[in-house]
Design a protein that fits this description.
single chain; globular; 354 residues; mainly alpha
C-alpha cells in the first residue's frame, strides 16, 4: 500500500502540471520560466535534502511544467518564420553576421548555418557536396552544435571559480542560456534532446553523481517522449538518439581495440575519431537507408577530415554570433572562420567528386 501511495503522490502532481501546461498557449517565456523553476527546485533538493512528501510532490509538479511548456518549443519555432521573438532575434543576429568583413563568400553562409540554423545562404552546389560526402549532419543543427555552445559557455565561465555557490550559479546560467539558444536555433528534436542531456548532466554534477552516457540517454528519451510523443516518428529524433546510442554502446568497445598506453598519441586520436564515426554510422545506417535510400561511401574519410575543421568553424561561428551584435568581434576570429570555411569546403568538395 505504501508503494501505491507513493506512486499516486508522485504521479498526480506531474500529471496535473502537464495537463495545466497543455491548456495554456505555448510561449518562450513559459518555457524559460519552467526551466528556471525546475532548476531552482533541484537546487533546493541539493541544498536541503528534504524528506517530506510535499517536497517530492512539488518536484514532480515542476517536472510536469517543464515537460508541458518545453513541448511547445518545436511547434513555436517551426511557426515563427514570419514573426515572433525567436525569428526576429535570429534574423537580427544573421544580419549582424552579414555586416562583417569576411574574405570568403561562403563563410557568412556557413557561420549562420552552423550557429543559427539559417541555411538560406548555402548554395545548392555546397549543400550537394555536404550530402554526397556524407557530412550533411554538420549542417543540421544537432547535439554537436549545442555541445560546442555548451563547451564555449563552460570555458567563458571557468574564471569564476569552482566553489559550491559558484557551481550553482554557473549551472543556472548554462541551462538558461542553452534553453535560449535552442529556442533561437529552432528547437529541433536533436537540439531538445541535447538540451535535456545538458540539464541532466549539470544536475548530476551538482548532486555529485557519476555521469553515465547511457543512463542519461535513456532518461532523456523518456523525458522527451513525455514532452512530445509524436517525435518518435521523426527522422531527426530517431537518427539523433541512434547516433548517441552508438556512442554509448559501441564506441567504448571499438575504442578499447587500440591498446591503451601506446606511444603514438596521434594514431590513437585518429582511431578514436574513426571509432566514433563508425559507431554513429552503424547505428544510424538502417534508418537512413529505409528513409532516404542512401549510404555515404566515404563517411569515414569525410568525418576524419571534416569533423575537426567543422568543430573549429562551429566554435568560431558561435563566438562570432555572440560578439558581432556587440561590435566586439576581433579580426583574428574572422580569419579563423575564413580559414576553417575554405578548408571545410575544399575537403567536402573533393570527397563528393570521388
Amino acid at each position: 500500500m505504501k508503494e501505491e501511495r507513493d506512486i499516486v503522490v508522485l504521479s498526480l502532481p506531474f500529471t496535473a502540471a502537464v495537463a495545466a501546461g497543455t491548456l495554456l498557449p505555448p510561449s518562450y517565456g513559459a518555457a524559460m520560466a519552467a526551466s528556471a523553476l525546475l532548476f531552482l527546485t533541484l537546487a533546493y533538493y541539493i541544498e536541503r535534502k528534504p524528506r517530506h512528501v510535499a517536497a517530492y510532490a512539488f518536484l514532480m509538479f515542476a517536472c510536469g511544467l517543464f515537460c508541458a511548456f518545453s513541448g511547445g518549443l518545436t511547434s513555436l519555432s517551426s511557426n515563427a518564420d514570419g514573426a515572433g521573438f525567436a525569428a526576429s532575434l535570429r534574423a537580427s543576429l544573421a544580419a549582424s553576421v552579414d555586416t562583417l568583413p569576411f574574405d570568403s563568400e561562403t563563410t557568412p553562409a556557413l557561420v549562420k548555418a552552423l550557429a543559427l540554423g539559417d541555411r538560406s545562404g548555402i548554395s545548392q552546389d555546397l549543400a550537394a557536396a555536404f550530402r554526397a560526402s556524407g557530412a550533411a549532419h554538420i549542417l543540421a543543427l544537432s547535439g554537436l552544435h549545442l555541445g560546442i555552445f555548451y563547451l564555449c559557455l563552460s570555458y567563458l565561465l571557468a574564471p569564476l571559480g569552482r566553489s559550491p555557490r559558484v557551481k550553482k550559479i554557473k549551472c543556472a546560467v548554462i541551462i538558461l542560456l542553452s534553453v535560449a539558444y535552442v529556442i533561437v536555433a529552432g528547437a529541433s528534436a536533436s537540439l531538445v534532446r541535447a538540451l535535456i542531456f545538458i540539464i541532466l548532466r549539470e544536475s548530476a554534477q551538482l548532486l555529485h553523481r557519476k555521469v553515465s552516457l547511457l543512463r542519461i540517454l535513456l532518461a532523456a528519451l523518456m523525458i522527451q517522449l513525455i514532452i512530445s510523443p509524436g517525435e518518435i516518428s521523426s527522422a531527426g529524433f530517431q537518427l539523433s538518439y541512434l547516433a548517441v546510442g552508438g556512442i554509448a554502446i559501441l564506441f567504448p568497445w571499438l575504442e578499447g581495440l587500440y591498446p591503451a598506453g601506446g606511444r603514438f598519441d596521434f594514431v590513437r586520436k585518429v582511431w578514436q575519431l574513426s571509432a566514433l564515426s563508425i559507431s554513429c554510422q552503424l547505428f544510424t545506417a538502417p534508418v537512413a537507408w529505409l528513409r532516404f535510400r542512401s549510404f555515404p561511401k566515404y563517411f569515414l574519410l569525410a568525418n576524419l577530415l571534416a569533423m575537426p575543421v567543422a568543430t573549429l568553424l562551429t566554435a568560431s561561428a558561435i563566438m562570432i554570433v555572440i560578439l558581432a551584435p556587440l561590435k566586439l568581434c576581433p579580426a583574428f576570429l574572422l580569419s579563423v572562420a575564413d580559414f576553417a570555411s575554405n578548408l571545410l569546403t575544399s575537403i567536402l568538395s573533393t570527397i563528393s567528386t570521388m
